Task: structure prediction
Amino acid sequence: MTAPAAGAQAAGTAEHSVLEVRGLRTYFRRGRGVIKIVRGVSFRVGRSGSVGLVGESGSGKSLTALSVMGLIDKPGFIAGGEILLNGRELVGMPEAELAKIRGRDVAMVFQEPTAALNPLYRIGSQVAEAIRAHQDVSRDQALEQARHLLELVGINDAGRVLHQYPHQLSGGMCQRVTIAAALANDPGLLILDEPTTALDTTIQAQILDIITDLKTRLETAIVFVSHDISVVAQICDELVVMYGGRVMENGPTEQVIGSPKHPYTQGLINAAMSVSGGTGRLESIPGEVPDPQRMPPGCPFEPRCPRAMPQCATEPPLTALPDGRQVACWLY
Amino acid sequence: MPTDRMDEPLLAGAAAPLEVAVPGVEDEPLSRPAGLLRQGNFVVGVVLLAIVVIPVLLAPVLSSVGPDVQNPSATFLGPSLGHLMGTDQYGRSIWARVLYGGRYTIGASVAVVVLGGIVGTVLGLVAGYLQGAVGFLIMRVVDLLLAFPGILLALGVTAILGPSLVNAVIAVAIVAVPLYARIVEGAAREIRNLPYVRASRALGAGPRHIIVRHVLPGALPAIVVQTTIYLGIAALWIAALGYLGLGVQPPTPEWGQMVSDGQASLSIAWWGTVFPGAFLAAFVVGVSLIGDALRDRLNPTAAGS
Result:
């Protein structure tokens, strides 16, 4: 919409991006100090592109997503960096402006589908609420649109579901409803934060199918946040592997999955393969995610890394490889 | 279900969650009223309240004389069929004065919870949802008001405003405001962090919309319980101010003022004090019992979950 004018300073790379995040830092105040959760994260999402943010719990991927939505509440705050949505800077934008953008230009689906719906209202009312937040339509028109949205996400008896309460629906159904509500205003970017983690495996596959289907049909750009690299790989064209609040590796999905460069990415893939591949032995990455208050001074993965070397005591920069992807590791 | 009821919120924790069939648990899905009727204190409360409120509402029907009609030839008569509750020093019917007086005591207490409830709820919602500097300021003023013993605050306010029923209502409502604000703020603070509120914000809902649509309905059980509990307290304080001469002015009857009126002649005419006192006590106890039952049932600490 306003891309050419408002995004003048963001010309160049941002021109064809829906979302461009540069050097994002999201911190939390605690007492007199700050806890640095997201420590300089950059990535971009092209028109109709799909990017997966992958990493273990505590890697800062969900907070990166919430930062893009402008939903970081006190004591959290964005300490630095830029978030350009369609060329417009979101960092520092007043709350009232952000509210206009949320749902219209960027929408988000959360992890717990049943908790993301108010138990006191019928489904139709809640989807209509999302529509009427940005469109000046009557309640009946909104309900009619809501029915179409529910059909879009594969709910066959949408007419009945409209009149039901969230507790009458399964988790998978609720997640379809929240996806429908997120699509209500045809946002250019849809952020999905662990949308299948709380669901049964069979339902997980259904939801992933719906997301894949929507991606091709609606041309909505997608940011998919998950700890499960195999799930993300199914959906996304590009992967951003995060650890300790930083990007470890990014690049096209085939390259990252096919020949992971960073030892952390290799560990994640080995762990995922051993679960699905059935080699009889479950692989894991030894150790645990560092406490953000006691982050190692160098590479955050160094304490757990099988290939750690003395150089790792200083933090490696994100370096471009000849094939175009980027890795933050002294091995390359 | 007709679409025109689509946007009506359920009372939090009302019928809906009870419809969930828990496998293996053969607990019949109770509708809420039936569940309440199983609680003894609720039934006793309703009966007490009915005994008090119905006659008060029907005062003109149940009393042949007005509350101010004097009869010099029938002073200090004891209770009899002619004068159900006897007469006072002016020969006025205590029965008539208790029934009409109830309108002032009960009416004033209802006015107190409506006034104090609305102001306190709005302050609590704003403070609890927005937090920040505004919320901090509101809650510190609330703390300040809570630090005063309620009756002292009410006395102080009527002393400043002057004795009258309206001023008594304002005084007791001022005492009620921080109580409501404190409870609603807690509920709002809890609800604002629920996933569905964040989801609603992620879809573009502004603060006013979220407060009205999500936070207020979630806080409603807490408000309802607080209202039933405070209604009795308000009646007691309205009566206390009346007793001290700071509320309704004579000859208008009001229970507290009647207790004080009859006190001088307590040794020769106990009925002048005991009957209004008994009605006041029945009203307060009845309302409190209902409030307790509602609190157990609606469990406002779990509001919104």
